[in-house]
Amino acid sequence: TQLLEQSPQFLSIQEGENLTVYCNSSSVFSSLQWYRQEPGEGPVLLVTVVTGGEVKKLKRLTFQFGDARKDSSLHITAAQPGDTGLYLCAGSAGPQKVTFGTGTKLQVIP
Amino acid sequence: GAGVSQSPSNKVTEKGKDVELRCDPISGHTALYWYRQSLGQGLEFLIYFQGNSAPDKSGLPSDRFSAERTGGSVSTLTIQRTQQEDSAVYLCASSLYWGRTEAFFGQGTRLTVV
After folding, report:
1. Which residues from B are below 8 Å from A95, CB to CB?
2. Is B73 at the interface with chain A, CB within 8 A?
3. Mean pLDDT, to the nearest integer, of A82-102?
4. What sign has the CA pseudo-torsion B69, A90, A67, A16?
5. Scanning every residue of chain A, which has its alpha carbon at the shortest distance from the alpha carbon of B50?
6. Nearest-CA residue of chain B relative to A97?
7. Is there a contact between B37 and A88 (Cβ–Cβ < 8 Å)?
8. Can you give the pLDDT at residue B97?
9. CA A14 → CA A10, A38, A62, A78, A86, distances in Å?
10. How do residues B3-61 score in pLDDT, each as one tens digit?
């Protein structure tokens, strides 16, 4: 069974602060995704990383896939209230179902 | 349609009644997932369909839950004899095939059992 643990579970910060969310597993994943979910909506894909050590940037968001493809991080620079939501990592190891992380609930206070 | 469509968007049912939730995946997507999400929580895996393979039902919480996928497209999640603890948002997602695991989600069905 593949498990993805996210930390922290909850994060409340002031607008303009930086933050990092972690996604860890003992399993190796062929690819890993990050999603953001806003209240009343389904999760929306932010990024997919596939290569160990890969770094992808999406405006103020920086995603990194661990060298061993077992972990990932999401760093947000100068957080904005619009970044508020539930952040979920998800991974798959080949022809298996996607496993979702436990989620990190982020609140950015204006 | 362009995205994953779920219906109904909201369902209120009495305890003990059966409910059916429907998911129309993105056309051409062979993988389909059902998840359950309690208020503000993460996603709880329920069942996974991949093409014509036998579904992975390992996440179904009890034998009151079942799902089928007809013709490799539309899926129905059925909950029999609903209980109050079944109240949650039920999310459906589809992806192109197992090698491409980006999942696209519907907006969910909010089920309330009273």
Report:
1. 50, 98-99
2. no
3. 84
4. positive
5. A97
6. B48
7. no
8. 72
9. 14, 18, 19, 9, 17
10. 999 999 999 999 999 999 999 999 989 889 999 998 777 888 899 998 888 898 989 99
